[in-house]
Specification:
By secondary structure, the chain is an alpha/beta fold. The protein has helices at residues 13-25, 36-46, 62-71, 89-97, 110-123, and strands at 5-9, 29-33, 50-54, 80-84, 102-105. Bound molecules: manganese (II) ion.
């Protein structure tokens, strides 16, 4: 089975490295963007199986980026997990209400993070259950 591709959108170098290292260690391939704008373009061109989206980004923020992803037929099927430093429970609710498929708080807890990545990937493409049994 080919390694699944995960797009990481993260503007902090240390967080990027941690997430990349954890995913690569667990056998996932990664592509990276440090802005939402670059992430949107990479999502269209690389068609990742999953996107990890930082919320606080220079320029477009992660919630706005999610809206763009969902309104584009080329990317609307891709599940997106929010990864944010925000600890407030009302922030968490706002993020989940925005339509993210999952939520991880920074600094990430590696075991929990990997479990969520697996779980969302196993659920397959959004509104396309046919893919859920593949791989
Ligand atoms: Mn950030």
């Amino acid at each position: 089975m080919a390694a699944q591709l995960v797009l990481i959108v993260e503007d902090n170098e240390k967080n990027m490295k941690l997430v990349r290292d954890v995913l690569n260690f667990h056998g996932y391939q990664t592509v990276e963007a440090t802005t939402a704008e670059a992430g949107l373009e990479l999502a269209r061109t690389s068609q990742p199986a999953l996107i990890l989206m930082d919320i606080q980004l220079p320029g477009l923020d992660g919630v706005s980026a999610l809206r763009h992803l969902r309104s584009d037929n080329a990317t609307s099927h891709i599940p997106v997990i929010a990864v944010t430093a925000s600890a407030m429970s009302n922030e968490r609710r706002k993020i989940l209400e925005a339509g993210f498929d999952g939520y991880q708080q920074k600094p990430i807890k590696v075991k929990e993070f990997v479990a969520e990545v697996r779980s969302v990937l196993n659920a397959g493409s959004r509104s396309d259950s046919r893919n859920a049994q593949e791989g």
